[in-house]
Amino acid sequence: RGAGNPFKGQTGEIRCDRNDTEAVKRALEGETFDLVYDNVYDWQRGTTAGQVQALALALSPRPRRYVFTSSVAAYGEGLDLDEDSPLAPDDHPDDYVRNKAQTEAMLFALHREQGFPAVTLRPPYVYGPENPFYREAFFWDRLLAGRPVIVPGDGERLMQFVLADDIARAAILAAESDCAAGRAYNIANPSPLTQRELVESLARAAGRKIEVVLVPREKLLAMGGRIFEPPYYFGQYFDMPPITQRTGHAREELGLEPVRFEEGLAGAFAWYGRRRGGAAPDFSFDDEVLASL
After folding, report:
1. Cα separation of 213 and 293, whole Å?
2. What is the pLDDT of residue 2?
3. In b/e form, how buried is each residue of 153-171, taking b as 16+ CB within 10 angstroms?
4. From CA 250, how far away is CA 173, in angstroms rounded?
5. How far apart are CA 5 and CA 241, in angstroms?
6. Could you report the per-residue pLDDT of 32-59, keeping only the tens digit for each?
């Protein structure tokens, strides 16, 4: 994923376009794998169920376990969902949601029909050190500058989180557990937070007081605020319709106990502190919104 290999010198490397099914078959010819972790989604073009299936079927001999990183988005919508809740329909308007749901359905069909040892993981918002998205840092930049934090709407929209390390631990456990093949797992902290509770938790992690300014979501969007690209009004990809999930199966079947959110945020803030000192944050959109109130 990406141009660099963070494990250079410790691993081998096979490079190809995972969405080019013929290239995948050629690249894997003669290769054998004990475990496969499928983590890569093509955000520009989308990665379809057919492209994932081509990879799965190109693995010969079959691996002992194939762990696919899906997403809570595969449900499409809903609150308090468990792994047996229906996934998003094939006509869902969002490509990412549709591709994740269809890929899971395909993998479980392969498991039923051919015994293919697939497991899927459904994380919600991922946080922690090395986060490539402008999420926790978005708020800490404002808090450490002594600025108010804009929260959309009434601040009650629900969000659920998982530490990146917990996803890694879940992936290892899913590969080792005898009961995991053919199963999906919600991987998350058990309790959702409101958006107001999130920014209050981020402030506590930074040891700062917080001033929350509630602004109608419609106003933020009308003024040019964006979700996927700057100017962000509430972090990158952070203000989405809520989907929350139950996490009992991962605890009962895999033995996964997620790190407490406050503890995970403390580690993320320590990493953030070590990485500060680059380009100055851009607060111009915040200033425009605040001046308009």
Report:
1. 10
2. 60
3. bebebbbbbbbbebbebbb
4. 9
5. 34
6. 999 999 998 998 899 999 999 999 999 9
Helices of type H across 89-222: 95-114, 136-144, 164-176, 195-206, 217-222
Query: Rounded CA gap, 104 and 122, in Å?
Result: 10
CA 244 to chain centroid: 13
Place of tokens 């991922």: 126
Which residues of the chain register pLDDT less than 70? 1-3
Q: What is the DSSP string of 29-59?
A: TT---SEEEE----TTT---HHHHHHHHHH-
- 258-293 pLDDT, tens digit per residue, is 999 999 999 999 999 998 877 889 999 999 999 999
Please report the pLDDT score of residue 223 as a whole number. Answer: 98
Backbone angles phi and psi of 94, in degrees to 5? -90, 120
Question: At residue 256, what is the residue type?
Answer: L
CB 158 within 8 Å of CB 192: yes
Residue 225: other Cβ atoms inside 10 A = 22
Q: State the residue for tokens 């100055």.
A: 280
| Interacting residues of 4 by C-beta distance below 8 A, sequence separation 6+ | none
Query: Is 237:228 a contact under the CB 8 Å cutoff?
Result: yes
- Provide the CB-side half-sphere exposure for 87 (13 A, CA): 23
- pLDDT value of position 279: 82
Q: For position 3, what pLDDT does the model report? A: 66
Q: Give the span between the Cα atoms of 135 and 234, in whole angstroms.
A: 8
Cis check for the bond before 123: say yes or no (omega within 30 of 0).
no
| Element at 194 (helix H, strand E) | strand 193-194
How far is 15 from 1, CA to CA, in rounded Å? 9
What one-letter code names the amino acid at 269?
A: F
* Cα 113 from Cα 88, distance rounded (Å): 22
Residue 276 pLDDT = 80
